Amino acid sequence: MARVFDISPLKINGQTVPMAVRVDARAKRLILRMDNHGKLTVTCPGDRYVDAAIQMARSRTGWIADRLAELPEPAHLRPGVAVPVLGKERMITFSPSIQTGVVTPDSVSVPAAVDNVGDVVVSTLAKELKRYCRNCADHWQDSLGVQYSRVRVRDMKTRWGSCTARGDLTFNTRLVFAPPQVLDYVILHEMCHLRFLDHSPEFWSLVENHCQDYLVQEAWLKSEGRSLFRYGAVGDVSLPPKRTSVTELPPPG
Ligand SMILES: [Zn+2]
């Protein structure tokens, strides 16, 4: 089992970069990663490689500076901020007349009396996404001749969606900020898994039959997907995907 511990942060161009070491016997080499928070993790195969791993990480200042420059600007979910929700910019607003958060055609309204606004916005958006995914899944059920058992949305770290053999579909809450054609593709992708629980040529041809430009959506997720992680509650741009930037080096000597 892997063991992770924090070490003292690096200073790169005056910026403090938090850092952790991960010791994992299955690692074949030293691996340096940065997540969307800008936290570095260096992985090594055993305790005796820890010093070498830290040294390697410290020597990669150019790579680290490049990754820092690429980090998405965090956008806090609070009143006055406009966010793309299911393909439409909507302003987060306080509304004194409502009890629970609600998504309208041009706003995400939250009750004025809450003090955890960000969390309320997050849960309101999750509910809206779930509703959207369920409608879309209902539609595909008929045209694909499949049946799902339930739809869930969760803030997942490494996946956009998943489908179990029992027909449980799970979608990443971050998709609420994605262009609708990307979201629609992810839903279709998971629905097609109800027919083929693999990535066989049969699976992909079923996907392509119903979404001719699925490669465009896949490409968007690869190149732009990380930008969906910039939105977060105040003080928390939550749950970035773990393996955003990876550099692999030769095995330690
Ligand atoms: Zn898949």
What is the CATH class designation of the largest domain? Alpha Beta
Instruction: Name the ligand types.
Output: zinc ion
Proportion of residues in β-strands: 25-35%
- The largest beta-sheet arranges its strands as 1-2-4-3-14
Q: Characterize the biggest β-sheet.
A: 5 strands, mixed
How many DSSP H or I helices? 6
Structural class: alpha/beta
The averaged pLDDT comes out at 87
Provide the helix percentage: 25-40%
Taken together, the total number of domains comes to 2
Remind me, CATH topology of the largest domain?
Answer: Zincin-like
Question: Helix and strand succession?
Answer: EEEEHHEEEEEHEEEHHHEE
* Number of strand elements: 14
Second CATH tier, the architecture of the largest domain: 2-Layer Sandwich
CATH superfamily of the largest domain: Metalloproteases ("zincins"), catalytic domain
State the distance separating the first and last CA atoms: 23 Å
Report Rg. 21 Å
Describe the protein's architecture and organization.
- The structure is a single chain.
- With 253 residues, the protein is of the alpha/beta class.
- It folds into two domains: 3-73 and 242-248, no CATH class; 76-232, 2-Layer Sandwich (Zincin-like).
- The chain has six helices and 14 strands.
- The chain has helices at residues 50-59, 61-70, 117-144, 180-192, 201-210, 214-224, and strands spanning 3-12, 15-23, 31-34, 40-44, 75-76, 82-85, 88-95, 102-103, 107-111, 150-154, 161-163, 168-172, 231-232, 245-248.
- A five-stranded mixed sheet has the order 1-2-4-3-14.
- Helix 3 crosses helix 4 (180-192).
- The longest helix is centred in the middle third of the chain and has 28 residues, at 117-144.
- It is globular.
- The structure holds zinc ion (ZN).
- The site of zinc ion has 3 residues, from loops.
- Zinc ion binds at residues 189, 193, 199.
- This is Zinc metallopeptidase-like protein.
- Residues 28-223 form the YgjP-like metallopeptidase domain.
- InterPro entries: UTP_pyrophosphatase-like (IPR053136), YgjP-like_metallopeptidase (IPR002725).
